[in-house]
User: Which sequence fits this backbone?
């Protein structure tokens, strides 16, 4: 069965410093992994996705994530935080290739705060 | 403009009074899904649909029904709402090619439901 664990419920950084949001997953097959962002009182927007191509995935707004199968991790990073990055971030796993077609599992979310 | 629309955006109702939340997409997507978002729990999948007349349970289907009679519409039905269904609900859609759904999900703006 699939599962996702976001290791921090809240992360606080200063503007201009690096961002690291941690995500570990469990999957019986080759998963697809996504990061979504939700700004306050808004819907969700895709940041980036991994679907068995390059293990280092680049997304929008300077974010990137690295798929590490040996560590079952898909951590999200950004070299330099901006005030506009303050939002909630969700790691998502799906197992389309494993007979679980259609089921998507969301992590509990990590709230990112950016201090001036 | 490509979008997913939900109606209503806000709804306050009483226990036991049947309600329907509509969801419509104009992108000709095969895959549609409903989620509920609760603090500290992230998003949890209620039901999903891989195509017209094809629906399946997600992780939290109890108390909900769905139908997919047309490709563009995927209404969520609460036959007898209870206070524990008070939540923020999101509808989403995505492409589904060759049975694989590793594509970006487009989310609606959300429906905030309060059941008293």
Assistant:
């Amino acid at each position: 069965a699939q599962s996702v664990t976001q290791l921090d419920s809240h992360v606080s950084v200063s503007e201009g410093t690096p961002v690291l949001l941690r995500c570990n997953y469990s999957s019986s097959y080759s998963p697809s992994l996504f990061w979504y962002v939700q700004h306050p009182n808004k819907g969700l927007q895709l940041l980036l996705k991994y679907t068995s191509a390059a293990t280092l995935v680049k997304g929008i707004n300077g974010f990137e994530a690295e798929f590490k199968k040996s560590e079952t991790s898909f951590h999200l990073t950004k070299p330099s935080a901006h005030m506009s990055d303050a939002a909630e971030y969700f790691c998502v796993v799906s197992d389309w290739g494993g007979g679980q077609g259609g089921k998507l599992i969301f992590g509990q979310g990590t709230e990112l705060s950016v201090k001036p | 403009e490509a979008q997913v629309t939900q109606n209503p955006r806000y709804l306050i109702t009483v226990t036991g009074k049947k309600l329907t939340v509509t969801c419509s997409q104009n992108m000709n997507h095969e895959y549609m899904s409903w989620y509920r978002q609760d603090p500290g729990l992230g998003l949890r999948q209620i039901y999903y649909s891989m195509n017209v007349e094809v629906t399946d349970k997600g992780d939290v289907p109890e108390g909900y029904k769905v139908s997919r009679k047309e490709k563009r519409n995927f209404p969520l039905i609460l036959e007898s709402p209870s206070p524990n269904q008070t939540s923020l609900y999101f509808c989403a859609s995505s492409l589904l090619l060759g049975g694989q759904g590793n594509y970006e999900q487009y989310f609606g703006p959300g429906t905030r439901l309060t059941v008293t």
Q: What stands out?
A: DSSP finds no helices and twelve strands in chain A. Chain A touches chain B at residues 6, 9, 32, 34, 36, 42-46, 49, 51, 90, 94, 96-97, 101-109 (CB under 8 Å). The mean pLDDT of chain A is 89. Residues 51 and 69 of chain A are 12 Å apart (CA to CA).
